[in-house]
Amino acid sequence: MFPIGGDNMKKYIAKRTAQVILTAVVIVILLTTIFVHMPGDYASGFMGRELKIHMRQELGLDLPKSVQIMNLVKSILTGKLFSVNSYAYNVPIGKVLLPVVTRSLFLYGISFFLSSIISIFLGALTAWKGRSKLDVIVRIGCVLGISVPFVIMDPIIEYYLFWVKRISYDTYDQYFLIRINIVVMLLYMLPLMTKYTRAIMIDVLSKDFITTARAKGLRESIIVFRHGMKNIYTELFTIMGVNINKILFYGFLIEAIFNYPGLGTLSTFAFKVRDYPLMIGCTIVTSLVIILFNYIFDILAGLLNPLIKIE
Q1: Which residue ranges run through the membrane (predicted)?
Q2: Which CATH class is domain 2-310?
């Protein structure tokens, strides 16, 4: 065992990078095998036996399953997947995915940034002001925010927008849609992250170095927001990495509910029409985002906490 730092840090990053690459390759092979063996294909949606046969021949869907899998895996591993034409759009899937992924990352990035700032402040404040009115209100809000499912939240939000505020569908433009999706993402992410931050901060405030700081006569606000805050990021980043798949899952649900033109909506369409290249492209991008964020959070946890040791 040795602490992260210097050459050891380089070895750790190299090891984690190799693990990320291996994980990505395994995911590619598994996903391709599953998708190709799913019942039905893109040509199944066409009327007429002759047209179906023609479409299968044109798209290579009449080839043996093993050949289809090898061709798709080869195109992915050689970096040619995103130049393969989508069955539905008849353009390279890279051109289809780029604007969609950009919109989704913008939505998730803004929501994640805002919820991180607000939740860290609220979590630290409620941990400091334990059992106060603010603490009770925030805890109740967190429980409600985590417990209420989207199938209930969606009609409530739509009722408020279109009946209480009298917003017409004519004003339901892209910028309005982005704001609504950010608000809904915050309603999901904020309670979850505030709950975690509060629990971590309560644990940190019980540590010996906090007791020492109090014995030195430092103000409680300085102890909490200067000394305590420095020690919550490692655990917080770890929890964020574990929950990044949940954030993406609920983000996809929000996109589908509010018809936001993002990765979730495109993935739903690709699976509906059995567009294999687009299905694989959407799923691989989603998997890589999850792997990449976990990779970044692992590295940050090691850099921020010198007490972490690795083998």
Answers
A1: 20-38, 105-128, 140-162, 174-193, 236-258, 278-304
A2: mainly alpha
